[in-house]
Amino acid sequence: MKTRKIYGALAVALTATIAVGGCSASKTTSSSSTVEKQDSSEASKLVNVNKQDRGNLDQGGTLTLSIAQMPVNWNTKNGDGNLSEISSMLQATDPMLFNYAPDGTVSNNPDFLEKMPEVKEDGGKETVTYTLNPKATWNDGSKIDASAFEATWKSQRAPMDKEGYNNITNAGYEDIEKVVKGSGDNQVVVTFKKRFYPVAEVFKSLVHPKVGNDPKVFNEGFTNDQVHNEWRANAFVIDKVDATNKTVTLVPNPKWWGEKPMLDKIIYRQMEDSAEIPAFKNNELDAVGVANKSRYQQIQGANGLDIRRGQRLADVVYNFNSKSQGLADVNVRKALWQAFDRTEWKKIRYDGLNWSEKDLGSNMYFAFQPEYQDNFPVKASPAEAQKTLEGAGYTKGADGFFAKGGQKLSVKYTSFGDDPVTTALGQLAKKQGKDAGIDVQLDIRPSAAFSEAMQKKDFGIVLMAYTPDSNTPVTSVCQLMCSTNPNNLSFAGTKELDERIAKLGEITDGKAQAKEINAIEKEWFTATYGTLPVASGPVITAYRKGISNIGPQLFQSLNMHWENVGWQKGTKKG
What we know:
By secondary structure, the chain is of the alpha+beta class. It has 17 helices and 26 strands. A hairpin with a 5-residue loop joins strand 4 (98-100) and strand 5 (106-108). It is globular. The protein starts with a strand and ends in a 7-residue tail after the last strand.
């Protein structure tokens, strides 16, 4: 949760995040249209990846996956590249310094770091020493060294309006005083102006010096088909971007110093939700999300079907664009929080999945984490929603809708994709709004329009999901709640809370830090009614039988190690 990756609108969210790795799994294979009963406490323990040692895999083969949209920016540290499915893809091509266990325990990734960073305090300042793998090299042949850390710091330390970088969050980086070469070429020493905790929240990944030292390159150098393999470093490279056929192809990196990738190709195909299951049945896709009743039933009978399910590492939210017509008034946003009944939402969303979970009360922690606290400030009640509007000077008309100053209270609900569940949830929002006297207008767009809408801030209420890229939310708090952060898609916040958020990294006791994060979120909810937490839900994905080391695995998915994904012997495809 260092920076929250946008998972997409609900149509995208219905397709499970694809996460890979090598943790032990409790494999689930299903050919039945009846789903086993499961709740969120059970799911938090599930890792389901068909774990196989590399020796049990065939060398070679192709894996074909779907994406909801073609990337508009190939720099995942850029605000326009901050999409979960694109970040998942580019974990295979970009330097990732840390590994994660399913429970979130952090360790060094030996391909890039020889050991965990060493932290020392000196005169009130904090120094952190990184010892890099001497083999770690950018694809252009230059060493990954202190220059990469300095460039990453430069591109992340200040917001767009100060230094020109369209980054996602500055937390941690803004507290750094200097970055210098250590005692050896593979050692980097980072000095913080004050203590920052935890240090693994910065420099999780790196940018090439030619990217981080120039805001124009950082912002514009990765748009369209500008993938710049020479500025990357990991097991795969981007071989081809085919805008006509809407595909992206990854192949093994010949300059990679680590374990050789098992697969010859990973192909991503952009398609609408309705095209995915037919493509799987036609052997054109090797994985497809089936986390709703209709899709789960449709996939039955497909050849080589292997259903894997577990806890989804994502928070589904309603983002209320406070700059959109009708939503600028915090009282209207509060009334909508009271109008939207999340229990009814879950009945539709998880119908037929035998899944149960309590209403989500936080955007900071998952319900299975010990730090989780229910910070939700209101109860679902159309009557209370109407009282809120009446208290704010709105008057209910003969048509059943409130108005103020002669203008009917109307808000826009923006959705993406053609999945039937997406449509049903939009209708639910419209009905629940009407019950509270608010006219909710449905604004339906194709899945591929999501990125552009987020870039242009062109939406009203949008149902979407955030996935973490770390095991703690300390540096994502500002992304979601700072009034000045452009990646806060509610665009709501307060100066007082901004100041408290800026001090979170100074709290070096984990429990005390979590307590303050929860306190900030609770106050932010009541001050802004900006981003409403809804649910997490299960990840249920149909995989092609034999594909291994891929599937639900909680925090381990944050560094996927795509080089270990492959086909069990005798099942190789492509």
